[in-house]
């Protein structure tokens, strides 16, 4: 194993670090002692890890942010600039070995959210974020193994790419096997492929495993999350990865997985933890979008286990040009790293390429004209993003651009009552700008338990344009915005839409959950708005007569009754809605003195409530 770690801040671009003093640090992690450093170096001294018949060792570093140089026993053995792709280096150990890793802040556009104020400095520290290990192997072994699964005409194929390293002349076969992961029963497979290499070489073996009668991975609520272990073996050396089999498509009506319709209710994540995956599932989300960053591999495992789909961004956000050729290389590396996961269904390239709304626009006639003018005159060259998107696989959905109205985005962002207008303008916005069925983000910001004086991730001016009061008023405002937009998108049968964001990375922000995990008022509002079968009001407010609409995202027809109450008024409405449809059986009149309206939808197996509050 690697030994204990020490670290030091360094001058970017200098030679191998050789400081007078190394400070003890915890690796993997983000050592706070280097919070203000543009570059930091980390050192570990470890004994020869081999035992028995092992001849070689491999260092693996995961989460090298953002640009790195690696020295082993005094030699520069590699450079790395894709933190989501593990760095691996094989070597013959000495009795004692010195590993030095220099990590530098982003030097290009591909730092993503970690090169912005959207996350705090403590989360942006250059370092070895996720893992640091050393493996031991015989002289001939599987150095690397990548897989890409797909369904073909009811069966499945798994494309396998194995890298074999050898210390002898090699003329042999690699055995590829497929076995169910877990307790479910399914057919296993075994194939072989020839490999030849000279001593000291690495050989790449590419092979396709045919899978008959596959057991599929299903999204949450539609079926089990079956997965398979793919193993490559040569001699006594093996390497394995876990994958899953499922089909993915999108038609005019929305997302289709394994031939079944999947509603696209999502949330974005800024700095994901496995706990966030649980929170997203509890909020009735069906997918998470990794907003302009790549997560720890453990997050994908959690999504696979939970049956939550993943929309993966390239770490690229904000206005400005970028190197499209380098972007293509990173996109291909992104897919090699995460493409084996059955939960991954979509990619996007460039997030927020234009800042069209640095100041908030109101909802009056002149402000609407200003909004139209800004959208009309906006200019963005999609060519580089589209060329990067071409490097991504055709069996995933790809949205080259996620951005504001006017950016020509494939997945527009929609921010009524934050960037422009009032939340009741959401219908006008959807009609006027022909947003379509995919919305990359929507939402509004709110304070947590503490109101920070200065938080660069939080636009206080936009917030204060709508909120007069403290935390309670702030969170009530956010809850109203999130609920209203989410329900309107569902009523209009939008196929994919994501609330931005699930959890704050800083003391205040767009999250419906605070940084420490405590829910804001908006979390419950989003959970209610995302209920698979839900009764909603199109225009709730005191003194309003508003349509009552029932949405059914389920797979079966539902029938029941909706009881409503507001102040001293109330009533009951019978409803019946086909699977995947919406119905408006009636309208209700809300008293002018009502502080809230509660809808209670009684179904044969459960009761679903939805509450609208007007006193916040």
TrEMBL record:
Keyword entries, A-Z: Glycosidase, Hydrolase
InterPro entries: Beta-gal/glucu_dom_sf (IPR036156), Galactose-bd-like_sf (IPR008979), GH (IPR017853), GH2_Domain-Containing (IPR051913), Ig-like_fold (IPR013783), Ig-like_GH2 (IPR006102)
GO BP term, example: carbohydrate metabolic process
Keyword Amino-acid biosynthesis: no
Segments forming domain Glycoside hydrolase family 2 immunoglobulin-like beta-sandwich: 140-238
Hydrolase found in the keyword field: yes
Region (Disordered): 1-21
Gene3D superfamilies the record matches: Galactose-binding domain-like, Glycosidases, Immunoglobulins
Protein name in the entry: Beta-galactosidase/beta-glucuronidase
Taxonomic lineage from the root: Archaea, Methanobacteriati, Methanobacteriota, Stenosarchaea group, Halobacteria
